[in-house]
Known about the structure:
- This protein has a single domain (5-306), classed as Alpha-Beta Barrel (TIM Barrel).
- The protein starts with a helix and ends in a 14-residue tail after the last helix.
- The chain is α/β, with parallel strands linked by helices.
- Helix content is 32%, strand content 12%.
- Helix 4 (115-121) links the parallel strand 3 and strand 4.
- The chain has helices at 5-8, 53-65, 84-93, 115-121, 135-142, 146-159, 185-200, 216-224, 228-237, 265-269, 283-286, 303-306; strands at 23-27, 70-74, 97-102, 125-129, 170-174, 206-209, 252-255, 260-262, 281-282.
Amino acid sequence: MQDSRPLLLQSDFPPIRRAALDTLQVNLGYLCNQSCAHCHVNAGPTRTELMSRETVDQVLALLDASTAGVVDLTGGAPELNPHFRYLVREARRRDVKVIDRCNLTVLFEPGQEDLAAFLAEQRVEITASLPCYLRDNVEAQRGKGVYDDSINALRRLNALGYGTDPRLQLNLVYNPVGPVLPPPQAALQADYQRELGQRFGIRFNQLFTITNMPISRFGAVLLAQGQYGSYMQLLRDSFSPANLDTVMCRNLLSIDWRGFIYDCDFNQMLDLPLVASDRRIHVSELIHQAGLEGRDIVTGEHCYGCTAGQGSSCGGALEG
């Protein structure tokens, strides 16, 4: 697999600095029941990297010592980590908001039969990936059979109150198929709500559009198909300076499965350590240290992906 990392390190991306920390985004490991074409962490069923209980406890200690009020759980499929439910319970016991980045089909994995009920009981906000409301587009990214399982999972979540009960937030995530920018988020959300509502009676709260990043698996596909240069030019040509004030890395810390800290999930996958040092900083080192507010964020060419067009973050478009 070709690696886009060397092409992303040198960049003229504008400098940005950290603001107050409000979110700890925790990657619980790369194990996943799917292998998606756009996945920037190369997750899949054969991956064995999983966060340990010791590191989970260190994350909780950092949560106690920081200003963060949100824990955003990612993977892989974060629910497949054996300590997922422990971390969720402990965060909720602290009255911290928990977001689960769910691929939906994990609800039908062996041993996860009660997962949906657990998430509802803990009032976990679900941000679920559904790359399109059409079967062909979903299965082109995620594989045969994924569409039906995703629809059934959404129905199960709706039956528990997700999407209708204001305490049970259900968001969907759209990723483009191929090297293009996502369409305007508000218009696409209306399309999703109409199509999923009319076809399946499915309800959800918000749709987030997220730009595909030219790293890891998707970056390798771009290079193999000779599309890397044109895609990067599209991101550069679509750069919007207004997005610099609201990019997610200004208020977020990304923690990998080993406990090392990065400015964002994408820097994590490019192995770009926090505060531009050659040494990785571990979560245990920050527990008793002062905050990072005001420090420079490590940037690269991939940052044009978050600032192109409407902008892109884990919370969807940055501009309305």
